[in-house]
Amino acid sequence: MKRTLFALIFFVTPLFADQPFVTAQYWGQLGNQLFQVATACGIAWDNGAEPIFPEIHPESTSFKHFFFRLNCSPLPRPIESEYSYNWRDSKPIPYRPNCKLLGYLQDEKVFRHHRGRLLKLFAAPPSDVRYIRQKYQWLLNHPKTVGVQVRDYIIEVGPSTQYPQYGRDFLEKAMAHFTPDHLFVISSNNVAYVKKCIPSWAKNVYILENEPHFIDFRILSYCKHNIITNSTFGWWAAWLNTNPNKVVITPSLWIKGRPPAYISPKEWITIDAAYH
Known about the structure:
The protein is an alpha/beta fold. The chain has two domains: 2-121, no CATH class; 126-271, Rossmann fold. It is globular, with a radius of gyration of 19 Å. It contains ten helices and ten strands.
């Protein structure tokens, strides 16, 4: 299987030898990686180019659980230009053949119209789906699940002048949008912290523990609705949620110094909440 996989990756390049490509700088954690891939795909698909991602290694966790459908072969020719994305720039990201995109690339407008294609591209591998169905079928069957993702920046980077740290006030306000019979399914990089932030009235709560991040991610996306803090991990779990009637709650301020809700789709509900 492994030998076949490498053969598919490294022999796919000749098929696109005469086609221009778009690639992207691949860095950061999963949420940022998904933005980079989705943006490069959106730009490429709009212009008849091939999105190629040679920086994604086929043995990586991200490849195995999210990016295994991508073309990760070597580039067929040298990069001709680079474009650095800046959220302050109101101009759309330009297309240039054989280009590399740099930066966070957090602009949903670039790929929103390719949602159906991206849902298929980023769908979970069968092994992850089987695992979740075997262990969490009771959760999948629940009619009123709300996937809640809380990121603790302090445990990762310490007190930050850039990232607001949301907690109890945000969860109080966000969870109040739902009735007590909803099941709040919570994922966090700091379970001890999030347990202190859950409102006292919220009794119908299930906290995901001891699962790899890619399983947490899929379970969040399989819930009926989502509450997310300022985390691209949660953003993508909510965006890939296929419930047509989903409600997504997010804080209005994601990064200090940037306009409120600069990253949130217009149909999501943004709320002001205390942070530190």
